[in-house]
Design brief:
Layout (H helix, E strand, L loop, with lengths): L4 E4 L7 H14 L3 E4 L12 H14 L2 E3 L8 E4 L6 E6 L6 H12 L6 E7 L9 H14 L5 E6 L8 E7 L9 E2 L5 E11 L4 H15 L7 E6 L9 E10 L4 E7 L6 H17 L6 H4 L2 H7 L3 E6 L4 H13 L4 E5 L4 E6 L2
Parallel strand pairs: 1-2, 5-6, 9-14, 10-11
Antiparallel strand pairs: 2-4, 3-4, 6-8, 7-8, 10-12, 12-13, 14-16, 15-16
Helix pairs in contact: 1-2, 1-3, 1-9, 2-3, 5-6
């Protein structure tokens, strides 16, 4: 096993992204890490429950030895073991994001010695994290371009502030990941999505969300299909409204956007927010959107060969992921500026 590598958790994004990428790569590459000044860039530093549960999940997946993994801790050590697969469970008591739990665990399970089943409990649809629908409908198709995928079963939705959602994810390991080349956006061939309400909220809100989004996007594409529905109370008893949008192109690009309703925001503005997010990715010629670009950095680094992906501006989350990858591996990234975009490339190993 390699020597312990120390990482300053206050650098760049200065939050949970450093933890997620560092612990994931530590497990896959069998590199022990010490992370100091955890979430040093946040007003309340240290491990919060969301981060704690993610680390514990990966610890269980790879039989790691850990130090300092407690609520509020600003320094941890993570000594990974073998990734063997099996069944694992993680629960965030609040509406902490299930998608973020999956972000830290999924890459590890791809390299397990046997299939893995993850039962994850927490929030499925919330602000400040990818909605679970984005993860399955946008990120998963991109993951499949690398030669991997996962099966997904939604048991219950969990919304802010109560949480209580539950999903079950099944992952079959792969021999290796394939490099990708996504540098030509091409022409949009479909725009579709889902506009939902839950709890006591009326279905009319879902229609207003969808109609607002369509009015913003119809100038660039006709025939937009947005399903409008009210969640079954057995699956989603609490109140929430939101939407997820997806655009596909003739070169195989998948771009996504989403928004969650806010009582301080007009419903039409929420729909417009999601539409504008998708519109910006399309108009600037990106091949993956801002929310997927940081998630694929680990995949690019682990793929056997050269990967190239066109993005809009390189986000701080992406810069952070690149920094951690370059700190823990021999993989080097290059960012090549374009007119309205950037191409991120690396030769994985």
């Amino acid at each position: 096993m390699s020597e312990l590598v120390e990482i300053d958790g206050s650098l760049l994004e200065g939050g949970g992204q450093i933890l997620r990428v560092a612990v994931t790569l530590s497990a896959i590459k069998k590199i022990p890490v010490r992370i100091t000044k955890i979430r040093g860039g946040r007003s309340k530093p240290g491990l919060m429950e969301q981060h704690l549960k993610g680390i514990e999940l990966v610890r269980n997946i790879c039989s790691a030895k850990v130090k300092g993994v407690t609520l509020g801790s600003t320094e941890i050590e993570f000594w990974p073991g073998e990734i063997k697969g099996g069944s694992f469970r993680a629960q965030v008591k609040t509406a902490g994001s299930i998608s973020l739990l999956l972000q830290v665990a999924l890459p590890c399970t791809l390299f397990a010695s046997s299939p893995t089943t993850l039962t994850l409990l927490g929030g499925t649809n919330a602000e400040m994290a990818p909605q679970i629908d984005y993860t399955t409908e946008v990120f998963r198709p991109i993951l499949e371009k690398f030669g991997a995928t996962f099966d997904f079963n939604l048991i219950r939705r969990g919304y802010f502030p109560k949480g209580g959602g539950e999903v079950v994810v099944h992952v079959n390991p792969v021999e290796n990941l394939n490099p990708i080349d996504m540098t030509e956006q091409g022409n949009v061939t479909a725009i579709y999505g889902w506009s939902f309400v839950a709890g006591v909220l009326p279905i009319s809100l879902a229609h207003r969300l969808a109609d607002s989004a369509i009015s913003c996007l119809q100038d660039i594409f006709k025939g937009i299909r947005i399903e409008r529905y009210k969640e079954n109370t057995n699956i989603a008893p609490d109140n929430c409204a939101g939407m997820v949008l997806v655009a596909e192109t003739d070169t195989g690009c998948i771009l996504g956007a989403s928004a969650i309703g806010n009582r301080n925001e007009k419903t039409e503005d929420t729909g417009k927010k999601a539409a504008d997010e998708l519109l910006n990715s399309i108009k600037d010629g990106a091949c993956v959107d801002d929310h997927s670009q940081d998630q694929i950095i680990i995949l690019m680094a682990l793929a056997k060969g050269k990967s190239r992906v066109k993005v809009r501006s390189v986000t701080m989350h992406t810069k952070t992921a690149i920094f951690i990858v370059e700190t823990l591996t021999n993989v080097k990234f290059e960012i090549i500026p374009q007119d309205t975009c950037n191409i991120i490339e690396c030769s994985g190993s």
